[in-house]
Amino acid sequence: MTETTTNAAPAQPAAADQPVPFLDLQAQTDEVAPEVRERWDEILRTSAFVLGPAVDRFERELAEHTGARHAVGVGNGTDALEIALQAAGIGPGDEVIVPANTFFATAEAVLRCGATLVPVDVDDDYLIDPQDVAAHLTPRTRAVVAVHLYGQMAPVARLREVVGPDVLLVEDAAQSQGASRDGLRSGGAGDVAATSFYPGKNLGAFGDGGAVLTSRDDVALRARRLRNHGGVGRYEHLEVGTNSRLDALQAAALSVKLTRLDGWNALRSAAAGRYAALLAEAFADVPEVVVPREVPGAVHVWHLYVVRVPGRAAVSEALSAAGIGHGIHYPAPVHLLPATAHLGLGPGTAPRAEAHAGEILSLPMFPGITAAQQERVVGALHAAVRTARAGAPGGRDRAVVG
Ligand SMILES: *Cc1c(COP(=O)(O)O)cnc(C)c1O
């Protein structure tokens, strides 16, 4: 940094020097804030803070958007998963199959229900692999959790063929609001689904929130009870539930944001297209850099844009130094975490997911990311990968670079 003394306005740093955040929610927030404030004023006037009209309204709107008959608003996505599983009757003695690469909450919910966690491998699109699901079916298999990871739906139709009519298909739709595949919509494709409104999700609240989605009346009713101390009415306790209700202020904000979701997803999709073009050009001769694809028949909503890179630790360090936000989703598969060590599932349980975990890298992605920001990301990634390959033992560019 050079200091100059001049009367002129300070020069803007060149665009190429500006950091790129991993996620920037400010434009979204600014866009909806006036409408949200109006709805919040109404709630402040009526003191309808817990459940009430704002939650009812959002539940109806969300159900319509997903094609599920019922939406039940709950406190967060993790509770949504646990309540969805419990409402569908999952408990001790039941085996529940989950993909090995997912956010820990997917596995946590299964374990909190007292069920047996059965992690299986993922396919080349990072989604639960139906063939490996088939290999893990037993007479005790009660459910399969299809995690629609990174914004792309798992192969739900294929999973149904593989598991038959009697195993429950549970969707973890936390990352896939607005996605579809083979004509099935995220949240409306299985027996029951859970979604999250954590602020960074495609449909994010201004705090925590979640929902259970289902077209089964019995499951919806039970989810309504479980979120409210085991009963729908006050002091009605038909079973042991919990307190996990969607906050009315969050529901009101989500109603406003839901009207923008499809447009925001379209912006993400356009950004993904730009990344694809930029990365294809930058890494035309580097096959180790793997870019994500939208599978045929799917509408991907690009919650995350995940590439695979050689020498990820060095690449990540170089990106940080260049001011490029990035993430790793996720650093370890669910069976190789301290919290699941007691299950005794070692390396080799899900070889593809385990290999991916060492190479995946999530690039900045949010509605409104600019082409200039994306060029900067890909430029920095190109430099980082070159440096990493040069530094790696046997790196191909070793003799050329440095
Ligand atoms: C975010 C997320 C969850 C949990 O949602 P919270 O609202 O943070 O509890 C569960 N599963 C997946 C795949 C997620 O991305």
Summary, kept brief:
Helix content is 38%, strand content 13%. It is an alpha/beta fold and 402 residues long. The chain folds into 2 domains: 29-258, Aspartate Aminotransferase, domain 2; 260-395, Alpha-Beta Complex (Aspartate Aminotransferase, domain 1).
What does this molecule look like?
With 402 residues, the chain is of the alpha/beta class. The chain has two domains: 230 residues, Aspartate Aminotransferase, domain 2; 136 residues, Aspartate Aminotransferase, domain 1 (Alpha-Beta Complex). The chain has a seven-stranded mixed sheet with strand order 1-9-8-5-4-2-3, sandwiched between helices. The two termini are 25 Å apart. Pyridoxal-5'-phosphate binds next to helix 3 and helix 4. Pyridoxal-5'-phosphate (PLP) binds next to helix 3 and helix 4.
List the helices and strands and how they pair.
Layout: H1 26-46, H2 53-66, E1 70-74, H3 77-87, E2 95-99, H4 104-112, E3 116-120, H5 130-135, E4 141-147, H6 156-163, E5 168-172, E6 180-181, E7 184-185, E8 192-196, E9 210-214, H7 217-226, H8 248-282, E10 298-299, E11 305-308, H9 312-321, H10 351-357, E12 360-363, H11 371-391
Parallel strand pairs: 2-3, 2-4, 4-5, 5-8
Antiparallel strand pairs: 1-9, 6-7, 6-10, 8-9, 11-12
Helix pairs in contact: 1-8, 2-8, 3-4, 3-7, 8-11, 9-11
Bound molecules: pyridoxal-5'-phosphate (PLP).
